[in-house]
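Much of our argument rests on the idea that a fold can be written as discrete symbols. In the encoding step, the backbone of a single protein was reduced to a row of integers, each denoting a local shape. This step matters because it turns folding into a mapping between discrete strings. For completeness, the protein is quoted in full, as a sequence line and a line of structure tokens:
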Amino acid sequence: MSSPVIALRAVKKNYQDVPILDIAQLELPAGIYWLQGENGAGKTTCMKVMAGLIPFKGEIVLQGNVSSREHPVRFRRLINYAEAEPLYPSFLTGRDLLDLYLQTKGGDKAVIREISESLGVDIFVNNSVSSYSSGMLKKLSLLLAFIGNPALILLDEPLITIDTRTLAVLYDLIRTYSAKGVSFCITSHQPLDPEELTITGTLKVAHKNITLS
């Protein structure tokens, strides 16, 4: 039996003295997961913890042997995260961010160039981020999420602020990367189109825990 793509072990997260997450154990086989929960339940916090972007107690292991505690750099290279409402330093251009991600994550520049063109990011990539609309920021964040060789891609509300054409491109990217063995965890208040994606399981965030169904 293959190792789970991600395993959370005794993961706890507090903000000041308020407990937000308390997950004894969660293991997810490779696949596409829909992360659901009420507003304020901790979905975004959960994603940031899984991505190793904020401190937490416990351990997260990717692909059976890459530990958030023992291999933090390798861990972050294997997991990508796109925020619901991305914010970037206004003085940077999209090109600056692309170059930074390619340097830190690695990956095929030609593939990223192709994705950039399909999302329409190439049209504005050389402009300052301060000039971007919310839709442009969203497209850039989605592009950055596919850089490198991730085992798991976390998409926080990817369906908001994008147009119909971009949505079709995104669904196609998820299907393509999933077929290559990349797993996805997606939060969305809007239903994920069952004709576009086959969901492996649903994750529910409630009472500080995550359950798989």
Summary: The CA atoms of residues 86 and 137 lie 6 Å apart.
